Every structure is written in structure tokens, then in C-alpha cells.
Amino acid sequence: MAASDDRTLLQAFATSLGAQEPALRLLISILIGYPIVLIHRYSLYCKNPLIQHLYFIVTGVSIALFNYGQNVVHSAVCVVVAWLLLLLMGGTLLSVLISFIFQMTYLLIGYYVTGTDTYDIKWSMPHCVLTLRLIALTYDVYDGRKDPEKLSGDQQKTALRFTPNLIEIAAHTYFPASFMVGPQFSMKRYLDFVKGTLVGCELPPCLIPGLLRGSLGMFYLGVYQVGISWIPDTFINSDEYYDLALWKRHLVVGVWAKITLYKYVSCWLIAEGVCIMSGLAYNGRNSSGGMRWDGCRNVHVLLLESSTQFGQLIQSFNSNTNAWVAHVPSLPSEQRLVCMLLYGLGSRLLLWPVKVEGLSYSGKDANGNCLWNGCANVKIGLYEGATTFGHMIASFNTNTNAWVAQYVYKRLRFLNNRYVSQVSALVFLAVWHGLHSGYYACFFMEFVVMNFERDLSNYVKQYPRLLAILNAGPLKYIKFVVLKLYVVVFMGYCLGPFVLLKLHRWWQFYHSLFFSGHVIFAGWPLYAPAVKALIKAIGGERLRLEKEKAK
After folding, report:
1. Calpha distance 33→36 (Å, rounded)
2. pLDDT at 509
3. Which of the listed residues 2, 228, 289, 477 has the most CB atoms within 10 Å of its CB?
4. Alpha-carbon distance 310 to 389, whole Å?
5. Alpha carbons 411 and 316: distance in angstroms, whole number
6. Which of 47-51, 161-165, 394-398 has the lowest mean pLDDT?
7. Which helix (H) or strand (E) holds 292?
């Protein structure tokens, strides 16, 4: 047989597309979610829950076998352990701690065993999604044993008053629309979906909204493919890159990061389209009475694109996991601290296949319109209009960010220190992504940038005359352009280590930019007094803060 025949058909097809075989398998696995959930919609929707569970288990495990073969055993082990914990001691503090330790340790060992110098699509990639899901399940059962009046609003929505059986846990874990790359959604949402109580037993009108969202994702995928051929990852740290002037290097890095983010944006949007079509993303109705399908959204695209602050960027990006971290259930303070230490010691991509069956249903708005954003991961408007990093964070990966916020950040309030809570959440996110030093460098930059923006923005807001000048006439548009350029350039600066991964690569990357971002953001406490003095001199009358009035 000829040497070329030794390659599989899939390998040959991947090569012809200029892609790697694991990436092609992943894409096929996401796309296959469409027919899977459509079959469920028209033959099993609102039927016997047991049959639905088995259908999701068989299809989900088949996808896992297609991608990772016998390595599916890793997910199976973690599912069985989670079930045994709930069976033997579900609803207890001990079960929460053991789940935390076991699931995070298993994930970290997986990262260590499978890790290389590059980003790899191996069994550990979907396992990070599984880890969050199984940890959250244990917490939700623990919450279900508490007095409902002592639970927060988020906890009341996810708390389980009973212990799910093995089939329910496996179906929730292997749900074919979300097993590979997310989104995160609670067991309660899944069971309501299967029982027909999330939207109702009448087939929801979510096909067109899902197709529109998926089409937007395909558009972004096309933009990414064109852009990455123009500025590939290898261009950064190349001789051609270093020959550019310093200001050009900053601009190129900004454009490169923008293109790189489109890889995630496109995947989340396409996955969200499947979530919407399933009905899982239903999120109630808007003020006009229309259905909302953003319950699984992970990117707020308009905020992401228009953001002028890094805070906006963060709000737009990976919100699903962020909400999870903020929602670590209310353990006693010492146990919560242990959990956070375990997080620190201890996204990936898509949201497609969950939208085709009604699973994205998320209630109705004030006007009675259905909301289908229960699995949303991208806020397109926020993403595209972001002019701060806060905008970017708010628009991107919103499903994941919401997870982090719900299960980690908000549960550290007992520390009475916002910075400790923020650092703990970011350390968890870095560890959850993997062991590469680039992840930690990236989330360190997020921390210093967000605190820079928060401090400066809060101070400027105390001078209404200055704000009025900046927001009036042509200055308003000039300010937008300047802030947008700021977000694009320094988003690239912050994202560099996340893509380059290894210390020697991202250190060289920062050296090529003369560590400008570190000087501006990490150095803020050193020059902040001078900047604030200047603002005070030109800002006019200052508003007194409430705490100052109280004095």
C-alpha cells in the first residue's frame, strides 16, 4: 500500500483544509450536535425521561469515543465517583470537600500527563468542562439540604432537593451538545428540560433564533480563517515582527489578538446556536414580550467589539464559567478557604449543540417574550463595541465567567476583601485552564488592568464637569476611538502569554514590547497620585462620596 494510503481519510481531509485532525474531529463533534438534538426534538422531546437520558448518554459517549477512544474511561471514572459521593454522603460538607479535591486533582494530573509545549486537543480538554459540572453538582445537592431562605437567588435556582441517580448524572455529563466544550448548565436546568417544565411540552419556536446565532458564528469563523492566514501565531516572535517599529508592534499584536479571539467567539456562537435550537437556552421574555434565548450565552459580541475598558471586555467574555466561580456554595469560612486553596493548587470553546432542543430556555422578559439565553457564551454587541477591558470581560465567554462568579467569587465574601476574592477567582481560572505559565501571566495582567481601570474610572466619575466635557460634541467620538485603540492594543498585550504558553516565548514577547503594559498597569500605584492631582486640578468641583458624607 502506498505511503499516502497510511493516512486515514479524516487525516487527509484535515490536511487538505490546513487543519489538524483532532481539531477537525472536534468540529465534526460539535456539528453532529445539530442532527442529534433535532432527532430528540421531533421524536423524544417531553417523552419518557429515562429514554431521553439513555439517548443523551449513548450519543455523548459515542462523541467521546470518536475523539479520544479508550480515554473516555477518565470521564467515566469521575462520573461514577461523583455518583458514589452523592449516594453515600450527598448533601454533606464532607462530600463537597472530597468532590473538590478529587475532581480538581484528577484534572491537574490529566494536564500533567497530556501536556506539551503547545495547546493540545486531548481528553483533558473536555475534562475541564466535566470537572466544573461535577463539582457544581455536589454543591447544588449540598445547597438543597439548606433552608431555602438562607440561599442566594443564584443558589435557589440551582439547588437540588434530592440526589440524582447515576443515569441522570451520566446524561447531564455526556449531554452531546455540551460534553466536549460546554456550556455549563445546572442539573436542575437539565432535568427541567427533560421533564418539559423548562419551556413546556409544546415544541418551542427556537429554530430560527438558533440558526441566526449559528450563522453569525460561521461569519466570525470565516473572518478568523482569513485573519490567521494574514497574521499567524508564528508571526509573533518572528524576525519580521521584530523588524517593525515599536508602535507598529503594538498595533500588530492588537490585531493579532483580535483575530485570535474570533476563534473562540465563532465557536461559542455556533455552539450557542445549537443550544438555542434545543431550547436549553430559554431565558424568559424581554420587555417587548419576545422570547430570550441567551441562557447559555458565553460572549456578548456588541459589548466585546465596542468595549473601551478591560472591565467591559471581561464582562463580555466567558461569562458562563465566571458565574460558576462566583457561586461556590456558602460553606463555613474555614472550609471555603480550604476550597479556594484547593482551587489554586488544583474554556474552553463551544456552546453549539445545546440550543436545538429548548434546553437554552431561560424564562420570559417583562413583556412576556421568551428568553433563550440560558446557554449564551458571547455578547456580540458588547464585544464589538468594547472600549474598556471591563466591557471585554463582560462580553466574552460569559457562560464560563458566570460559573466562576457563582461558585467561587461570591462565596468569598466572608473575607471582606474584594481583592482576595478577585485573585482567588483568577487563580482558579488559570489553574483550570492548565499548568502552562502563560495562563498565570495572562490572568495576572487581567488583575492589574481591572484594578487600574476601576480606580481611575471611579476617581474620574467624581468630577462631573470633566465628564460632561469628555462626553460632549466631537470629544465624545475622539474619546471612543482612543479608548477602542487602547482596548485593542492592550488586549493583545494581555492575551499574548495565553497563546504562547511557555515562559521563554511570552517573556520574549513582552520584551519586544518593552513591558509597556506592566509599566502602565502594574505601575499604576506609583504614579496614580500624580494623575489624580492632575484630574483634580482640571476637573472642577468634586462630588463627595457617600462614605465621606457619613463622616
Report:
1. 5
2. 95
3. 228
4. 1
5. 22
6. 394-398
7. strand 291-296
Residue 440 in grid coordinates: 498565570
H-state helical runs in 145-279: 153-158, 166-173, 187-195, 207-230, 239-242, 246-278
Alpha-carbon distance 327 to 188, whole Å?
Answer: 15
Element (H, E) at 512: helix 503-512
Which pTM value belongs to this model? Answer: 0.81
**Domain boundaries defined on the chain:** 3-195
Inform me whether the pLDDT recorded for 333 exceeds 70: no
pLDDT digits 0-9 by tens, 401-444:
777 777 777 777 777 777 788 888 888 888 888 889 999 999 99
Which residue in 397, 399, 401, 451 is the catalytic one? 397
Q: List for the chain the helix, strand, coil content (%; round to 5).
A: 70, 5, 25
Active site residue 71: no
Dihedral in degrees, nearest 10, Cα atoms 497, 501, 507, 513: -30
Q: What is the rounded radius of gyration, in angstroms, for the C-alpha atoms of the chain?
A: 23
433 is catalytic: yes
CB 288 within 8 A of CB 369: yes
Catalytic residue among 283, 433, 436, 451: 433
Per-residue CA distances from 240 to 236, 250, 497 (Å): 9, 14, 20
End-to-end CA distance of the chain: 86
pLDDT digits (tens, 9 = 90+) for 404-415: 777 777 777 777
Q: What are the tens digits of pLDDT across the range 352-406?
A: 334 445 566 666 656 666 665 666 666 666 666 777 777 777 776 676 777 777 7
Could you give the CA distance from residue 537 to residue 529 in angstroms, rounded to a whole number? 12
